[in-house]
Amino acid sequence: MENNQEVLLKVDHLCQYFKMGPNAVTKAVDDVSFEIKKGEVFGLVGESGCGKTTTGRSIIKLYDITSGSVYFKGVRIAAGTQSYKDAIKKAQTEYKEKISKAANPEEAAKLKKELDAFVAQQRAEIKSAQYDQKNCDKEYSAKLVKQVEEKYAPLLAAATGAEKEKLAKEYKNELRKAKNTRLVTQIQMIFQDPIASLDPRMTVREIISEGLVIQGERDKKVIDEKVYEMLELVGLVREHASRYPHEFSGGQRQRIGVARSIIMNPELIIADEPVSALDVSVQAQVINLLNELRDKFGLTLLFIAHDLSVVKYFSDRIGVMYYGKMVELADSDELFLNPMHPYTRSLLSAIPLPDPIYEKTRKRIVYNPLAEHDYSVDPPTFRELKPGHFVQCNEAEYQRYMEQLK
User: Fold this and answer.
1) Phi and psi dihedrals of 148, rounded to 5?
2) Cβ(369)–Cβ(384) under 8 Å?
3) pLDDT over threshold 80, residue 265
4) Would you say 348 and 359 are in contact if contact means Cβ atoms under 8 Å apart?
5) For the chain, what percent of residues have pLDDT higher than 70?
6) How many other C-beta atoms lie within 10 A of the C-beta of residue 187?
7) For residue 305, how many other CB atoms are within 10 A of its CB?
């Protein structure tokens, strides 16, 4: 990986809650923060149901996030408002009690003024979040339209005859594509279940080219050539373009999913357990394919998996999730060398090795959060133990982890 410090994606205090009834809420993702630098592979691991896939789907805006922000290329593409609303409710309750206990009317008026200022600030944040959520794609599209106009205006002014006619046609096509382009299309997703993510009524050509058609590309020859190029890139052949998804094996379907994601020339790919449903030999083929595409196109990947051995081979940095929270984040080598959180150690102890002598003595570490942590007095926060190595812990645990590192 290139030593590139440019942050492509920033996830800031992401929360994704789902209502399960009038008063019941499931916190699928709860206050998760991380950054992905341009050109790197960021692995996200954890057991089934810990919120990995929900995090990926929230980033690509398949869900409207509850609170927090997602920044892509420095632009806020997703923003939630629940945290601001909760802050207003909490402040109103606290200030109501303070105002009732005020010594005189002047102090009460001062407290009321402080409350009004805080509420106004939070409402401004809500308005800003709603605006960014709604208009980030429109603003990006308008920016592209302006670039196309600036590029073709002098060319059209200088051209004459047949050349001008050709340029005008090209300009019209590029302008249409610019108007239909969205910032979020530079993030693409490879889904976990290849057959469920492919429309059984569409041919492979239609599936792979759908993004180009939505973007406004109308030249059938251009679309076909692009589709054939993608098929050959992922190890399939042109003849496969006219077939339907049910005619392929699991590994081939996943390759079709990869081709569909890279045809839009994205900067970030979210690979949601792309190999978990495949045989071990096919897993290696798909992982190697992703590695080749990463090198060829300079892709950045968010690689979601529950197999730590696969993630170690493929990722530069790894984040470990448990019950909707990020419990540990570090470089791949550092995480395997110095796992600090008990849940990370539990995951690592479950990795089998092709060594019968080691397997006889291998001890599984069982993670029991109630026995491991006492957060009744001092709640945990996400703390940095050493540069780039973060762990969810309270003060007592932090001191213990620092001693272990020494």
Assistant:
1) -65, -45
2) no
3) yes
4) no
5) 99
6) 26
7) 23
Cα 36 to Cα 264: distance, rounded to the nearest angstrom:
20
Residue range 197-229, pLDDT digits in tens? 899 999 999 999 999 898 888 889 999 999 999
User: Is 391:383 a contact under the CB 8 Å cutoff?
Assistant: yes
Q: What is the Cα–Cα distance from 56 to 231, expressed in whole angstroms?
A: 25
What is the pairing mode between strands 389-393 and 381-386? Answer: antiparallel
Which neighbouring-strand residues pair with 72? Answer: 9, 75
Strands (E), 113-219: 187-190
CA–CA dist 168, 153 (Å, integer)? 10
- In the prediction, which pLDDT does 196 show? 86
Please give the angle made by the CA atoms of 336, 30 and 340, to the nearest 5 degrees.
20
Spell out the residues 6+ positions from residue 272 whose beta carbon is closer than 8 angstroms to its own: 52, 53, 56, 57, 189, 190, 191, 192, 304
As given in the structure block, the two tokens for residue 325 are 């929270």
Whether the Cβ atoms of residue 70 and residue 58 lie closer than 8 Å to each other: yes
